[in-house]
């Protein structure tokens, strides 16, 4: 516990729920640091390593005087004076079929010397080569785990890197293009090769041009492999029916949730990520990096490229960092997301007010359509413009949408629309009203790069009372959280770009498909993320949810969900939310049925916020 009595662990960790006595005895967690490294004249490599708990109290590596043995492995590489990536001093040979390759690797078979509690000197079994450049940057990596399973606290994992120059002096050359924090926006926590490799800095030590995959001979060079994996199904080679594989893993079905042009999703600016070389993606073009996504280009022959390129020396002559126009051949220009082009007028909506809201009434919406220059845009000039009405907000069971292209107004950007459809005669509570639309716009007309782009307005949703106080719909997930992975959500042609707008249609009554199944929001989203190659940790509900909305009890007034494919139809709201991830299990449905009666669900008795089997506890790791 912290000094103020609060836990020093996250709610996604089992230790968060442990008693103070357990925490004080086990001291769960693992932190590994390197304070010093040296390479002797004969090539012997030594590292001064500290293992500690999250409060920096020392741990026993062997798990004798403190709980949980700690297993550590080591990597070491150098950035040559004429290079930008690492060359590992430790390699291994791997054979697959008729292919035998040499790969960068690590070791754990060196010798340990205990200096004091938690302090050790590790001497590598491998030695640095006699030809090493002692003035070059060297990076030592450590990764490992602490086994606390006997205390029901799982396995604690950690890694770290340490930069040094064997000859002494400051480190001036680094490999620091993308930071782990940028990856963890989607991946929650990087945890590859068994879970112990958790940082980009560590990955960079092995994933270099030095390391091909034995099975496919594809390179595992970081800048190539990561681009290819993330582009996945959109790779030109994959579209041409050639799968992209590393080992036995086929990444050809990966669908990146963000646009392929949105390099900034991963390559966040230095101001945001802190990465020293954050601008490399647009200031240092190379055939390997660019050809990883554009893998139908043959730089040697010039196929699908204006000219052959035998080196990277000429790349920046044409592909400057920033050009004069969107969609030109500059790096940033070529990677403009079309719907975010500066050439668009950028349609903007507001809903100023809604009048005549009540049972059997036909509400009138006053809204505006303008562009980024605050100029009015006529509804008749829009390609698509719709207004929505749905309610009640506790859980929408009735909605309509109407074409508003013929809305009229005084000419100052304000327009009025009276719904043709009347509200239900029994309408009550709070209802929500929304707007969506776009205008097709030709950008760069008359040029070879002319293109038609949907200039989509951001959805706006407001609330109005059909009886009683105005109560906005509960906030379960946020558009901002979705956009951490999706960059800018825009479904159904880009029209629906906020979570609030999605709730009109994706309500408990919506079914679609053959055979029919539920497309209620929680049902659909849980199912999609559970079935897709979701990059994050499905146990961490808070990666999407806000306001602890995943915890029980759920909000009052929620409706049962119509779902012909469910074992219980209609499905009560709590059962429905959980079945999106757990619904393939027969015991799940049996358990749910046993806890549903005419009075409702009793899930919160065992799984409530403070119960022994609270949602947060059973999902913790």
Explain the overall architecture.
With 621 residues, the protein is α+β, with helices and mostly antiparallel strands. The chain has four domains: 167 residues, Sandwich (Immunoglobulin-like); 120 residues, no CATH class; 122 residues, Macroglobulin (MG2) domain (Immunoglobulin-like), CATH 2.60.40; 116 residues, no CATH class. Helix content is 18%, strand content 24%. Strands 15, 16, 18, 19 and 20 form a five-stranded antiparallel sheet that branches. Strands 1-2-8-7 form a four-stranded antiparallel sheet, with no helix packed on it. The protein has a four-stranded antiparallel sheet with strand order 4-3-9-10, with helices on one face. A hairpin with a 2-residue loop joins strand 23 and strand 24. Helix 13 packs parallel to helix 14.
Q: Quick gist of this model?
A:
With about 625 residues, the protein is α+β, with helices and mostly antiparallel strands.
Write the layout of secondary structure elements.
Blueprint: H1 20-26, E1 31-39, E2 44-52, E3 70-79, E4 87-88, E5 91-96, E6 99-104, E7 111-116, E8 119-127, E9 137-147, E10 155-164, H2 180-187, H3 200-206, H4 222-231, H5 236-239, E11 245-246, E12 249-250, H6 270-273, H7 280-283, H8 287-293, H9 315-318, H10 331-334, E13 348-355, E14 364-370, E15 384-391, E16 398-403, E17 414-418, E18 430-443, E19 451-456, E20 460-465, H11 479-486, H12 499-505, E21 511-512, E22 517-518, H13 521-531, H14 573-582, H15 586-594, E23 596-597, E24 600-601, H16 603-607, H17 615-619
Antiparallel strand pairs: 1-2, 2-8, 3-4, 3-9, 5-6, 7-8, 9-10, 11-12, 13-14, 14-17, 15-16, 15-18, 18-19, 18-20, 21-22, 23-24
